[in-house]
């Protein structure tokens, strides 16, 4: 098996329980040498293991962090979940405004993309509500209007067929619109799925700590916007980073980058990963190709060769195994380290994140033991 290549097929799926990880051949050689608990305990005093989340904006870093905290620290209580009501409501309303404006903009060029005239009064009512409503619940009547707009065939066609960073919706917009009647009830309290999915833009440095099998992990989420990336290197100055989880939205191969419309999200992630491997200290790296569920939904309808980064792909654009193998190889050509993992992920999928973190934990502990001279490669 060549470095960075995956093991596909039924046995692989059965062994990992779903979309999982592959590793370089050098790492695969040592897969049988996983550190046992008694070996780890011999290493002396327990220390905090530092994990850093990197990646461009909208790659899913904050979603992954919230998911890991739910898994290892437990669900939030209702009082804390109430603090997310405003964020959920804002997401719903802001996405709806973008959806309407997108239909109006492109509907002026193609009538099939313009919402039904019968929705005009409803849209005015909803926009008036947005302009005048103070913080609080979305009225049930507004929720019904949102459903009518969302299910309009022209609106759906415009949403599905045109990518425009000025109007595109957040990835979880569909989830919230499918739950709009629940969300618009006066006694609405977000559940944990709502909390995981709501958009949460990271600025500055955000960190949380959790314990797994007596091992303490400090997880640091750094903002992915270009203005925030200058802060990244400060996390590496003490040389105590045990691993980097680098997030890439694999579904972004045909989504225009908000901060640079001349490239797609996947191209921006590629360039950023290249910069990371050249300019940052060597560290164990787990490349997480996230939003795999959205990628799978796109493949039957969109060719990956539409993305300039993937234009040389010669395989079947409808074949999941072939397309993801090629994308992985493109990133592998940047980072040919002997010790690195790559995962496909859907950060909103709790079971998948549990499996991924098991491998992340194993990688970090092995590296920690190697540094201490307890485990020999």
Automatic annotation (TrEMBL):
Gene Ontology annotations for the cellular component aspect, listed alphabetically: cytoplasm; heterotrimeric G-protein complex
One of the Pfam families matching this protein, by short name: G-alpha
This protein's name: Uncharacterized protein
GO BP terms in the entry: adenylate cyclase-modulating G protein-coupled receptor signaling pathway
Membrane-crossing residue ranges in chain numbering: none
Binding positions (Mg(2+)): 62, 202
Organism whose genome encodes this protein: Amorphochlora amoebiformis
An example molecular function term from Gene Ontology annotations: G-protein beta/gamma-subunit complex binding
SUPFAM superfamilies (alphabetical): P-loop containing nucleoside triphosphate hydrolases, Transducin (alpha subunit), insertion domain
Binding annotation for GTP: 171-172, 221-225, 290-293, 347
Keywords for the protein's UniProt record, in alphabetical order: GTP-binding, Magnesium, Metal-binding, Nucleotide-binding, Transducer
Keyword Magnesium part of the UniProt annotation: yes
């Amino acid at each position: 098996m060549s470095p960075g290549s995956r093991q596909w097929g039924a046995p692989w799926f059965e062994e990992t329980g779903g979309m999982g990880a592959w590793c370089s051949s050098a790492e695969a050689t040592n897969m049988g040498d996983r550190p046992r608990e008694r070996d780890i305990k011999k290493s002396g005093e327990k220390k905090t293991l530092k994990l850093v989340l990197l990646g461009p904006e909208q790659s899913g870093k904050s979603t992954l962090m919230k998911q890991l905290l739910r898994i290892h620290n437990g669900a939030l209580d209702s009082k804390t979940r109430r603090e997310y009501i405003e964020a959920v409501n804002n997401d719903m309303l802001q996405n709806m405004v973008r959806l309407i404006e997108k239909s109006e903009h492109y509907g002026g060029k193609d009538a099939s993309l313009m919402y039904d005239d019968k929705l005009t009064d409803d849209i005015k009512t909803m926009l008036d509500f947005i302009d005048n409503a103070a913080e609080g619940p979305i009225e049930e009547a507004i929720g019904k209007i949102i459903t009518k707009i969302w299910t309009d065939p022209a609106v759906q066609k415009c949403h599905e067929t045109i990518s425009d960073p000025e109007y595109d919706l957040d990835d979880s917009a569909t989830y919230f619109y499918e739950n709009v009647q629940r969300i618009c009830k006066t006694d609405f309290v977000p559940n944990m799925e709502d909390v995981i999915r709501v958009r949460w833009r990271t600025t500055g440095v955000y960190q949380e700590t959790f314990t797994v099998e007596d091992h303490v992990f400090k997880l640091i989420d750094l903002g992915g916007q270009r203005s925030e990336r200058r802060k990244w290197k400060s996390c590496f100055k003490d040389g105590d980073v045990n691993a980097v989880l680098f997030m890439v939205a694999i579904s972004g191969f045909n989504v225009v980058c908000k901060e640079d419309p001349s490239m797609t999200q996947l191209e921006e992630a590629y360039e950023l990963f290249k910069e990371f491997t050249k300019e940052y200290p060597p560290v164990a790296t787990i490349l997480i190709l996230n939003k795999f569920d959205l990628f799978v939904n796109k493949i039957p309808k969109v060719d990956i060769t539409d993305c300039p980064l993937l234009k040389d792909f010669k395989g079947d654009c409808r074949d999941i195994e072939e397309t993801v193998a090629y994308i992985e190889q493109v990133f592998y050509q940047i980072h040919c380290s002997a010790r690195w993992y790559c995962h496909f992920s859907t950060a909103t999928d709790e079971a998948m994140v549990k499996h991924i973190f098991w491998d992340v934990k194993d990688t970090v502990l092995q590296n920690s033991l190697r540094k201490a001279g307890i485990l020999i490669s």
